[in-house]
Amino acid sequence: MVLGFLVRGGLVAGTVYYTRKVGIWGDSDQTDKLYNDIKSELRPHVQKLEKQLPFEVPQLPRTGEMRFLAKHYYNEGVKNTFRFIHMLPCYAGRGLKKVKDTFQDFAQSPAIAGGAESSPAK
């Protein structure tokens, strides 16, 4: 148990150290440089793979587009999170009403729930 925790902690620490070293957590210029370096390293492999695929692979987006898309989707995620938090009381109220109605339906006898009441024989 302790060994597993140490291994996981070491992996997390190593990942953070490596990503800091290569510039992921640096300023935007470092990140742009890293993105362009990765893109140039992958280009020969992608070109080789494109020749083998029966369809056309789209180009990687430019850094300006990536920055815009990252900001856009981050902002959409934040907006939707707050919209969900805003609507949470409504969702909880609807859920509790459904639970209450379900328990009331179970509490009724089958004869009343079916709509036909049995009458005593004369």
TrEMBL record:
What GO cellular component entries does it have? MICOS complex; mitochondrial crista junction
Keyword vocabulary terms for this entry = Membrane, Mitochondrion, Mitochondrion inner membrane, Transmembrane, Transmembrane helix
Which GO biological-process labels does this protein carry? cristae formation; regulation of cristae formation
- Compartmental location: Mitochondrion inner membrane
The main place the protein resides is mitochondrion
**Membrane topology annotation:** Single-pass membrane protein
Recorded hits in Pfam families, A to Z, give: QIL1
What family is this protein classified in? Answer: Belongs to the MICOS complex subunit Mic13 family.
Q: What does this protein do?
A: Component of the MICOS complex, a large protein complex of the mitochondrial inner membrane that plays crucial roles in the maintenance of crista junctions, inner membrane architecture, and formation of contact sites to the outer membrane.
Quaternary structure and partners: Component of the mitochondrial contact site and cristae organizing system (MICOS) complex.
What this protein is called in its record is MICOS complex subunit MIC13
Organism equals Drosophila erecta (Fruit fly)
**Protein encoded by which gene:** Dere\GG13616
